[in-house]
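Inverse folding, one chain.
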């Protein structure tokens, strides 16, 4: 564990929101970079939707979002925990798990009993209490796995 790790909800128009935008501009996850930049630049978060940032000494080292819709034509499925990313130098320190836990607590506080995570990776989210639901087709025709977690 990292002792100085802090996870927080990012609010529009704050210094942390500016840092998050810079973080995404420089992160290595090319497949989602442009889409995530657009969402943050235009602050497309509505109602309870929000990004979260994991920081160490004020520097963002990871992020996640909670959204009503994601990269899938499934309007009945939400909330999605999405865009979970940790910089390479901070991987292996359970930051993703802490981001997901924080997002799940936030979801529970906002009246949700379940969250969903889409992924191509099998075997990761099960460690965090998620269970496989079914294969899903994304907007470009790719197949991903849909996982869900019941919140207690």
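Residues assigned per position:
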């Amino acid at each position: 564990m990292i002792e100085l790790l802090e996870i927080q909800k990012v609010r529009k128009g704050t210094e942390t929101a500016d840092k998050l935008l810079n973080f995404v501009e420089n992160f290595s996850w090319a497949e989602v970079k442009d889409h995530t930049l657009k969402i943050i630049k235009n602050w497309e978060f509505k109602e309870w939707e929000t990004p979260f940032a994991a920081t160490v000494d004020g520097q963002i080292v990871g992020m996640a979002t909670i959204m009503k819709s994601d990269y899938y034509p499934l309007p009945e499925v939400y909330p999605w925990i999405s865009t979970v990313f940790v910089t390479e130098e901070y991987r292996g320190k359970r930051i993703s798990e802490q981001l997901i836990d924080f997002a799940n607590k936030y979801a529970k506080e906002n009246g949700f009993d379940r969250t969903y995570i889409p992924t191509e990776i099998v075997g990761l989210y099960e460690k965090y209490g998620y269970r496989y639901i079914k294969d899903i087709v994304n907007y470009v025709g790719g197949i991903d796995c849909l996982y869900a977690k019941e919140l207690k």
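The chain has one domain: 5-112. The chain is about 25% helix and 30% strand.
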